From TrEMBL:
SUPFAM superfamilies in the cross-refs: Annexin (SSF47874)
Lineage: Eukaryota, Metazoa, Chordata, Craniata, Vertebrata
Name the UniProt record assigns to this protein: Annexin
SMART domains: ANX (SM00335)
PROSITE patterns per UniProt: ANNEXIN_1, ANNEXIN_2
Family note: Belongs to the annexin family.
Entry domain remark: A pair of annexin repeats may form one binding site for calcium and phospholipid.
Recorded superkingdom: Eukaryota
Recorded GO MF terms: calcium ion binding; calcium-dependent phospholipid binding; phospholipase inhibitor activity
Keyword annotations: Annexin, Calcium, Calcium/phospholipid-binding, Repeat
Gene3D superfamilies attached to this UniProt entry: Annexin
Length: 134
């Protein structure tokens, strides 16, 4: 799967022998019922590349008819919830939300603005712009 959000930057590489259906099922089992298998969520969502996580999101929707981020929000809380939801959010949408958040209210978070606006390619900026207006 070719993506403008994939490249040689960063340390997370594609997980070998990746199967979005196996991962979606394991995530569903980890959050189903009472209690959450947080270790399972961490091991899956932090050991997959962003492109692979987006395939898991699509597979989860197809298999269970629900949005993975909504199920994570309903089952988790606090910083852990924010992290897990961020991991399954498409990069352009995540950046758009961070831009909006950095400009909300009195003052701005210049560090967030500078990091996003100066490190993304023109194609990524177009995707962020579209996500921002959506």
């Amino acid at each position: 799967m070719a993506s403008i959000w994939v490249g040689h930057r960063g340390t997370v590489r594609d997980y070998p022998d990746f199967s979005p259906s196996v991962d979606a099922e394991a995530i569903q089992k980890a959050i189903r019922g009472i209690g959450t298998d947080e270790k399972m969520l961490i091991s899956i969502l932090t050991e997959r590349s962003n492109a692979q996580r987006q395939l898991i999101v699509k597979e989860y929707q197809a298999a269970y008819g629900k949005e993975l981020k909504d199920d994570l929000k309903g089952d988790l809380s606090g910083h852990f919830e924010h992290l897990m939801v961020a991991l399954v959010t498409p990069p352009a949408v995540f950046d758009a939300k961070q831009l909006k958040k950095s400009m909300k209210g009195a003052g701005t978070n210049e560090d967030a603005l500078i990091e996003i606006l100066t490190t993304r390619t023109s194609r990524q900026m177009k995707d962020i712009s579209q996500a921002y207006y959506t």
